[in-house]
Design a protein that fits this description.
Layout lengths: L3 H8 L7 H16 L4 E4 L3 H13 L11 H10 L1 H10 L6 E3 L4 H10 L5 H9 L5 E5 L6 H12 L3 E6 L12 E4 L5 H23 L1
Parallel strand pairs: 1-2, 1-3, 3-4, 4-5
Length: 209
Protein backbone atom coordinates (compact mmCIF):
# COMPACT_ATOMS: atom_id res chain seq x y z
CA UNK A 1 0.00 0.00 0.00
CA UNK A 2 1.13 3.53 -0.76
CA UNK A 3 2.09 5.41 2.41
CA UNK A 4 -0.85 7.79 2.39
CA UNK A 5 -0.15 9.05 5.90
CA UNK A 6 3.40 10.05 4.97
CA UNK A 7 2.00 11.85 1.92
CA UNK A 8 -0.55 13.62 4.12
CA UNK A 9 2.10 14.82 6.55
CA UNK A 10 4.34 15.98 3.72
CA UNK A 11 1.51 18.21 2.49
CA UNK A 12 0.29 19.20 5.97
CA UNK A 13 3.31 18.97 8.32
CA UNK A 14 1.34 20.09 11.38
CA UNK A 15 -0.67 16.86 11.19
CA UNK A 16 2.30 14.79 12.29
CA UNK A 17 0.86 14.99 15.82
CA UNK A 18 -2.14 12.98 14.55
CA UNK A 19 -0.15 10.26 12.80
CA UNK A 20 -0.78 7.47 15.31
CA UNK A 21 -4.46 8.31 15.71
CA UNK A 22 -5.00 8.32 11.95
CA UNK A 23 -3.40 4.88 11.72
CA UNK A 24 -5.55 3.59 14.60
CA UNK A 25 -8.67 4.99 12.94
CA UNK A 26 -7.76 3.33 9.67
CA UNK A 27 -7.32 -0.03 11.41
CA UNK A 28 -10.80 0.29 12.94
CA UNK A 29 -12.40 1.32 9.65
CA UNK A 30 -10.65 -1.35 7.61
CA UNK A 31 -11.70 -4.10 10.02
CA UNK A 32 -15.30 -2.92 9.84
CA UNK A 33 -15.27 -2.71 6.04
CA UNK A 34 -13.69 -6.15 5.59
CA UNK A 35 -16.30 -7.65 7.93
CA UNK A 36 -19.18 -5.86 6.15
CA UNK A 37 -20.02 -3.67 9.11
CA UNK A 38 -21.29 -0.19 8.35
CA UNK A 39 -20.02 3.28 9.08
CA UNK A 40 -22.18 6.05 10.50
CA UNK A 41 -21.10 9.70 10.43
CA UNK A 42 -22.49 12.79 12.14
CA UNK A 43 -21.74 16.46 12.71
CA UNK A 44 -23.28 19.93 12.62
CA UNK A 45 -22.91 22.71 10.07
CA UNK A 46 -19.62 22.34 8.21
CA UNK A 47 -19.07 19.06 10.04
CA UNK A 48 -22.39 17.83 8.65
CA UNK A 49 -21.03 18.57 5.18
CA UNK A 50 -17.84 16.70 6.07
CA UNK A 51 -19.95 13.76 7.25
CA UNK A 52 -21.68 13.69 3.88
CA UNK A 53 -18.36 14.07 2.06
CA UNK A 54 -16.97 10.96 3.78
CA UNK A 55 -20.03 8.94 2.76
CA UNK A 56 -19.66 10.13 -0.83
CA UNK A 57 -16.05 8.97 -1.03
CA UNK A 58 -16.82 5.54 0.44
CA UNK A 59 -20.07 4.61 -1.29
CA UNK A 60 -18.60 4.89 -4.79
CA UNK A 61 -15.22 4.96 -6.49
CA UNK A 62 -12.86 7.57 -5.06
CA UNK A 63 -9.62 7.20 -7.05
CA UNK A 64 -9.65 3.47 -7.89
CA UNK A 65 -12.01 1.39 -9.98
CA UNK A 66 -14.37 -0.79 -7.93
CA UNK A 67 -15.90 -3.36 -10.28
CA UNK A 68 -18.71 -5.56 -9.04
CA UNK A 69 -17.70 -9.04 -7.96
CA UNK A 70 -18.35 -11.90 -10.35
CA UNK A 71 -21.04 -13.48 -8.19
CA UNK A 72 -23.12 -10.30 -8.24
CA UNK A 73 -22.60 -9.83 -11.97
CA UNK A 74 -23.88 -13.36 -12.61
CA UNK A 75 -26.90 -12.77 -10.37
CA UNK A 76 -27.78 -9.55 -12.20
CA UNK A 77 -27.39 -11.30 -15.54
CA UNK A 78 -29.78 -14.07 -14.50
CA UNK A 79 -32.41 -11.67 -13.14
CA UNK A 80 -32.42 -9.15 -15.99
CA UNK A 81 -30.18 -10.10 -18.90
CA UNK A 82 -31.49 -7.15 -20.92
CA UNK A 83 -30.03 -4.74 -18.34
CA UNK A 84 -27.00 -6.77 -17.28
CA UNK A 85 -24.38 -5.19 -19.51
CA UNK A 86 -25.26 -1.66 -18.39
CA UNK A 87 -25.56 -2.50 -14.69
CA UNK A 88 -22.44 -4.65 -14.56
CA UNK A 89 -20.34 -2.03 -16.32
CA UNK A 90 -21.53 1.04 -14.43
CA UNK A 91 -22.30 -0.07 -10.88
CA UNK A 92 -19.45 0.10 -8.37
CA UNK A 93 -18.71 -1.62 -5.08
CA UNK A 94 -19.09 0.59 -2.01
CA UNK A 95 -18.42 0.71 1.70
CA UNK A 96 -21.71 0.87 3.61
CA UNK A 97 -21.84 4.39 5.09
CA UNK A 98 -24.68 6.62 6.32
CA UNK A 99 -24.60 10.31 7.26
CA UNK A 100 -26.99 10.80 10.17
CA UNK A 101 -27.40 14.53 9.58
CA UNK A 102 -29.04 14.13 6.16
CA UNK A 103 -32.41 12.71 7.21
CA UNK A 104 -34.47 15.88 7.43
CA UNK A 105 -37.90 14.36 8.01
CA UNK A 106 -36.72 12.06 10.80
CA UNK A 107 -34.47 14.64 12.45
CA UNK A 108 -37.06 17.43 12.43
CA UNK A 109 -39.76 15.05 13.66
CA UNK A 110 -37.63 13.81 16.54
CA UNK A 111 -36.52 17.36 17.34
CA UNK A 112 -40.13 18.53 17.46
CA UNK A 113 -41.62 15.51 19.21
CA UNK A 114 -38.87 14.51 21.62
CA UNK A 115 -35.49 16.28 21.93
CA UNK A 116 -33.30 17.91 19.26
CA UNK A 117 -30.13 17.00 21.12
CA UNK A 118 -30.84 13.31 20.53
CA UNK A 119 -31.41 13.28 16.76
CA UNK A 120 -28.16 11.40 16.06
CA UNK A 121 -28.43 9.12 19.08
CA UNK A 122 -31.89 8.01 17.96
CA UNK A 123 -30.51 6.99 14.58
CA UNK A 124 -27.68 5.08 16.26
CA UNK A 125 -30.41 3.12 18.05
CA UNK A 126 -31.99 2.26 14.69
CA UNK A 127 -28.90 1.68 12.57
CA UNK A 128 -26.15 0.70 14.97
CA UNK A 129 -25.02 -2.88 15.47
CA UNK A 130 -22.10 -4.43 17.34
CA UNK A 131 -18.78 -3.67 15.61
CA UNK A 132 -20.23 -0.96 13.39
CA UNK A 133 -18.28 2.31 13.49
CA UNK A 134 -19.34 5.92 13.94
CA UNK A 135 -17.21 8.94 13.07
CA UNK A 136 -18.29 11.80 15.32
CA UNK A 137 -17.15 15.18 13.99
CA UNK A 138 -17.12 18.22 16.25
CA UNK A 139 -14.63 21.06 15.97
CA UNK A 140 -15.16 21.90 19.66
CA UNK A 141 -15.48 18.30 20.84
CA UNK A 142 -18.50 19.43 22.85
CA UNK A 143 -21.46 19.30 20.43
CA UNK A 144 -24.17 17.76 22.59
CA UNK A 145 -25.97 15.82 19.85
CA UNK A 146 -22.65 14.37 18.68
CA UNK A 147 -21.56 13.45 22.20
CA UNK A 148 -24.89 11.71 22.88
CA UNK A 149 -24.51 9.76 19.64
CA UNK A 150 -21.07 8.59 20.78
CA UNK A 151 -22.42 7.48 24.16
CA UNK A 152 -25.24 5.56 22.49
CA UNK A 153 -22.82 3.94 20.05
CA UNK A 154 -20.60 2.72 22.89
CA UNK A 155 -23.68 1.26 24.58
CA UNK A 156 -24.35 -0.70 21.37
CA UNK A 157 -20.77 -2.04 21.28
CA UNK A 158 -19.78 0.07 18.30
CA UNK A 159 -16.38 1.64 17.69
CA UNK A 160 -16.26 5.43 17.98
CA UNK A 161 -13.81 7.68 16.15
CA UNK A 162 -13.74 11.35 17.09
CA UNK A 163 -12.59 14.10 14.74
CA UNK A 164 -12.06 17.34 16.65
CA UNK A 165 -9.71 20.26 17.28
CA UNK A 166 -6.82 20.33 19.71
CA UNK A 167 -8.79 21.38 22.81
CA UNK A 168 -10.07 18.73 25.19
CA UNK A 169 -13.80 18.11 24.86
CA UNK A 170 -16.57 15.95 26.33
CA UNK A 171 -16.49 13.76 23.24
CA UNK A 172 -12.97 12.54 24.00
CA UNK A 173 -13.83 10.09 26.77
CA UNK A 174 -16.44 8.25 24.70
CA UNK A 175 -14.17 7.56 21.72
CA UNK A 176 -11.93 4.60 20.97
CA UNK A 177 -9.63 7.02 19.18
CA UNK A 178 -9.72 10.81 18.74
CA UNK A 179 -7.99 12.61 15.89
CA UNK A 180 -7.34 16.07 17.32
CA UNK A 181 -6.06 18.32 14.55
CA UNK A 182 -3.71 21.04 15.87
CA UNK A 183 -5.95 24.10 15.54
CA UNK A 184 -8.41 25.89 17.82
CA UNK A 185 -10.43 28.10 15.45
CA UNK A 186 -13.39 26.35 13.86
CA UNK A 187 -12.64 27.11 10.22
CA UNK A 188 -8.99 26.13 10.62
CA UNK A 189 -9.99 22.87 12.30
CA UNK A 190 -12.38 22.09 9.45
CA UNK A 191 -9.69 22.88 6.88
CA UNK A 192 -7.54 20.12 8.41
CA UNK A 193 -10.37 17.65 8.86
CA UNK A 194 -10.81 17.29 5.09
CA UNK A 195 -7.31 16.00 4.24
CA UNK A 196 -7.47 13.68 7.25
CA UNK A 197 -10.67 11.95 6.19
CA UNK A 198 -9.62 11.97 2.56
CA UNK A 199 -6.52 10.05 3.63
CA UNK A 200 -8.62 7.53 5.56
CA UNK A 201 -10.90 7.01 2.55
CA UNK A 202 -7.91 6.56 0.25
CA UNK A 203 -6.40 3.98 2.59
CA UNK A 204 -9.63 2.00 2.91
CA UNK A 205 -10.18 1.98 -0.83
CA UNK A 206 -6.59 0.89 -1.44
CA UNK A 207 -6.93 -1.95 1.07
CA UNK A 208 -10.20 -3.27 -0.38
CA UNK A 209 -9.61 -2.74 -4.08
Amino acid sequence: MKDYIADLIERYPSLIVCKNQIKESYDILKTAAVNHNKLLTCGNGGSSSDSDHIVGELMKSFVKERPLNDELKIAISKIAPEHADDLNKKLQEGVAAINLSQHAALNTAFSNDVDPSMIFAQQVIGYGKTDDVIICISSSGNSKNVVLAAITAKAKNMKVIGLTGMKEGYLDKYCDVVIKVPEIETYKIQELHLPVYHTLCLMIEDALW
